[in-house]
């Protein structure tokens, strides 16, 4: 199946001289959830804005459903819904009018029943006649989501959707994302909350300094990049590592009562059996054993630190 | 053509006027009435007739133009500047809509509002003075052309401005003086000869003159020249808008 979004060697240099994107290529499959991870200023928003047509790429091309997003912008844009990062909403408009406005703007005829359903799903129905400026921050974000979904997009961009959002909205939002995924909508979200990506994404892209450092299946990424740590709790604390144990990558923690062994799950031999034998030979007795998989966050920090 | 988008932008802009209905309708009515009290009754009683037209009636086309110009500019400039200021413009820029459809929505609404205000002033004026309109079609043509041209100018200002101060700058420092010095309240012939020549460089003079001709068949400059000047102005504004859209000036990075 051809990708629904195909980004081909896109670079963006702003008039200010800031190089926001450098040679980014990325294919996004229809129906997947892709999380773009990266620190602030990494280029995530610029990348999204370029696909949506708000920012013009300095070089490279973007196609959406096979159409070029510059020459065939009508065809590409009507497929896309965008929830921006900032709470950018008018002030003197009602929720209902604002959402209806969005639908019309994207070239769709009025469909009150659909909008009613959408507002109800986002717990906005009671607020439909409220002025936008009277809404709380959380409510405003719900309105932005409703606006983005008002024209039934096939691709949804969520730019930092949970920044400063309460637990309830976060739950509602993930429920909505799940429903959209079921109906085949492709979702691209940017975040710097790694747990979020870990929880819902199919694939993860890491972007930093305007470069896409890698894109991979989330599970494979965690598997491949993951290191495991074995925590060995001892009955008697140690002052220093016994001589027989120095050939392992070990460190002492917790006043010498714990040994931390870091190993690579991909290595042919993890060395655990030999280590435990050596510990036994050194005459140490064990109290407990614990192993821990590194999280996406740790992988991410490693990646960002690794770059030249 | 994305007519749905043009419709919602137009409706949104018209609705904005509806929310401030009192201000939209009442303010031109009040200011027109005040002008009539001051110029028509107080001063007009001493001037009586200008070129065979009673002074009260003579100033009506100028008064309408004064409101039309300022309203067109302020409506259109605010309409596009405000979404840029709040950031909501992202939605319009990411929508499947061409710049010309955006223009049609915003400028169409601003011009419509000015046209409505112009009509209200005309009706209000009818309560104070006896009006006759010699060439109603020409009057309508001048009215519409002026509304559209100056709404375009307002749109340009709204895109150019990057602060509320700049938004007010041109209407305040350029347009208002030009309107007052463009023969709104007097005939150019009433000025000393040197100032008559200076006034000919004021583009607003041609608008007011042509518009006044459509009422009373008296004009400071020929009607053809008036029409030419307003079409020229329309062409210049259109060219600037075309360039702004082509370059993405202040809209797209």
Any chance you could write out the topology, listing elements then pairs?
The complex is a heterodimer of chains A (308) and B (253).
Chain A: E1 5-13, E2 19-28, E3 33-37, H1 44-52, E4 59-64, E5 67-68, H2 73-77, E6 80-83, H3 95-105, H4 112-121, H5 137-149, E7 155-159, H6 167-182, E8 186-191, H7 194-200, E9 203-208, E10 211-217, H8 218-225, E11 227-234, E12 250-253, E13 258-264, H9 272-281, E14 286-293, H10 296-306
Parallel strand pairs in A: 3-8, 3-9, 6-7, 7-8
Antiparallel strand pairs in A: 1-2, 1-4, 4-5, 9-10, 11-13, 11-14, 12-13
Chain B: H1 3-19, H2 21-47, E1 49-50, E2 53-54, H3 55-58, H4 60-86, H5 89-93, H6 99-128, H7 136-160, H8 164-180, H9 193-199, H10 203-216, H11 223-247
Antiparallel strand pairs in B: 1-2
Helix pairs in contact in B: 1-6, 2-6, 4-6, 4-7, 4-8, 4-10, 6-7, 7-10, 7-11, 10-11
The CATH architecture of the largest domain in chain A comes to 3-Layer(aba) Sandwich
Give a quick account of the main beta sheet of chain B: strands, pairing sense, barrel closure.
2 strands, antiparallel
User: Given the structure, what is the number of helices of chain B?
Assistant: 11
Shape of chain A: elongated
Q: For this entry, what is the oligomeric state of its chains? A: heterodimer
Number of domains of chain B: 1
Mean residue pLDDT of chain B = 89
Class based on secondary structure composition and strand pairing of chain B: mainly alpha
Strand order of the largest sheet of chain B: 1-2
The radius of gyration computed from the alpha-carbon positions of chain A, rounded to a whole number of angstroms, is 25 Å
Percent of residues in beta strands of chain B: under 5%
Number of structural domains of chain A: 2
What low-confidence regions of chain A span 5 or more consecutive residues with pLDDT below 50?
none
How many runs of DSSP E, i.e. beta strands of chain B?
Answer: 2
- Which range best describes the helical content of chain A: under 10%, 10-25%, 25-40%, 40-55%, 55-70% or over 70%? 25-40%
Determine the N-to-C terminus distance of chain B.
24 Å
At the fourth CATH level, what is the homologous superfamily of the largest domain in chain A?
P-loop containing nucleotide triphosphate hydrolases
Percent of residues in helices of chain B comes to over 70%
Based on Cα principal axes, name the global outline of chain B. Answer: globular
Radius of gyration of chain B, taken over Cα atoms and rounded to an integer in Å? 19 Å
User: What order do the strands of the largest sheet of chain A run in, or round the barrel if closed?
Assistant: 6-7-8-3-9-10
């Amino acid at each position: 199946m051809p990708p629904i979004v195909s980004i081909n060697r896109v670079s963006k240099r702003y008039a200010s001289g800031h190089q926001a994107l450098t040679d980014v290529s990325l294919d996004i499959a229809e129906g997947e959830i892709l999380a773009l991870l990266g620190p602030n200023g990494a280029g995530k928003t610029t990348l999204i804005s370029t696909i949506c047509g708000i920012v013009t790429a300095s070089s490279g091309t973007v196609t959406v459903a096979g159409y070029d997003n510059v020459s065939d912008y009508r065809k590409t844009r009507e497929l896309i819904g965008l929830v921006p990062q900032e709470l950018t909403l008018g002030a003197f408009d009602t929720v209902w009018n604002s959402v209806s406005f969005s639908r019309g703007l994207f070239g769709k005829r009025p469909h009150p029943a659909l909008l009613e359903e959408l507002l109800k799903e986002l717990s906005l129905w009671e607020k439909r006649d409220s002025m936008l400026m009277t809404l709380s921050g959380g409510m405003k974000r719900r309105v932005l989501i409703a606006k983005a979904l008002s024209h039934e997009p096939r691709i949804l961009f969520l730019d930092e959707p949970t920044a400063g959002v309460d637990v309830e909205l976060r739950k509602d939002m993930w429920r909505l994302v799940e429903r959209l995924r079921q109906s085949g909508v492709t979702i691209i979200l940017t975040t710097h909350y790694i747990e979020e990506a870990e929880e819902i994404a199919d694939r993860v892209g890491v972007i930093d300094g305007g470069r896409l450092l890698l894109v991979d299946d989330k599970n494979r990424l965690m598997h491949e990049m993951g290191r495991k740590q074995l925590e060995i709790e001892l009955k008697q604390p140690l002052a220093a590592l016994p001589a027989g144990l120095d050939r392992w990558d070990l460190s002492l923690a917790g006043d010498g009562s714990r040994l931390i062994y870091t190993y690579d799950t991909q290595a042919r031999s993890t060395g655990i059996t030999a280590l435990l034998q050596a510990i036994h030979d050194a005459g140490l007795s064990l109290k407990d054993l614990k192993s821990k998989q590194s999280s996406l966050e740790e992988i991410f920090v490693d990646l960002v630190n690794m770059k030249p | 053509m994305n007519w749905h988008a043009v419709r919602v932008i137009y409706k949104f802009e018209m609705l904005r006027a509806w929310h401030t209905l009192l201000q939209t309708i009442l303010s031109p009515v009040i200011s027109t009435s005040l002008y009539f009290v001051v110029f028509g009754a107080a001063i007009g009683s001493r001037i009586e007739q200008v070129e065979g037209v009673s002074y009260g009636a003579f100033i009506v086309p100028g008064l309408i133009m004064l409101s039309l110009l300022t309203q067109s500019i302020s409506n259109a400039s605010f309409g596009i500047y405000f979404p840029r200021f709040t950031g909501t413009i992202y939605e319009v820029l990411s929508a499947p809509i061409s710049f010309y459809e955006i223009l049609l929505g915003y400028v169409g609404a601003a011009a419509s509002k000015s046209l409505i205000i112009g009509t209200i002033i005309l009706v209000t004026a009818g309560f104070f003075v006896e009006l006759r309109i010699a060439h109603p079609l020409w009057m309508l043509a001048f009215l519409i052309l002026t509304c559209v041209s100056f709404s375009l100018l307002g749109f340009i200002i709204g895109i150019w401005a990057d602060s509320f101060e700049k938004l007010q700058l041109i209407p305040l420092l350029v347009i208002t003086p030009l309107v007052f010095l463009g023969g709104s309240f007097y005939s150019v012939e009433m000025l000393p000869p040197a100032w008559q020549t200076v006034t000919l460089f004021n583009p607003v003079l041609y608008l007011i003159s042509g518009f006044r001709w459509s009422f009373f068949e008296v004009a400071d400059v020929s009607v053809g020249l008036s029409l030419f000047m307003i079409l020229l102005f329309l062409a210049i504004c259109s060219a600037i808008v075309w360039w702004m859209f082509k370059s993405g000036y202040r809209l797209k990075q």
